[in-house]
């Protein structure tokens, strides 16, 4: 009897510890998901942004400005926010580490001209 209880405890602990791992952004295919704020299909992956709450709910956005508006409207306990590197659409950057600029040279899906870069040097050609 004690062996079955021990086995159940071990399985429970394993499941709990697996859930505590590092949360990473998930890649999407073009048009696979709609923006959690404006409901547009996410098609320009240079602007794809992800937000995950402490409860594990993941939200996808087609632009940084959609994510900003969504945050203002919702009372969420946010665990992570990732933005896509404008110059490498397969690379996510934690929002607090990204260089986010506003530029007339950038045409974002919602028209605000916001884009994220990994370094200041990468963003300089797009500065107004």
Automatic annotation (TrEMBL):
Pfam families: NosL (PF05573). InterPro entries: N2O_reductase_NosL. PANTHER family: HTH-TYPE TRANSCRIPTIONAL REPRESSOR YCNK. This is Accessory protein NosL. It comes from Leptospira kanakyensis.
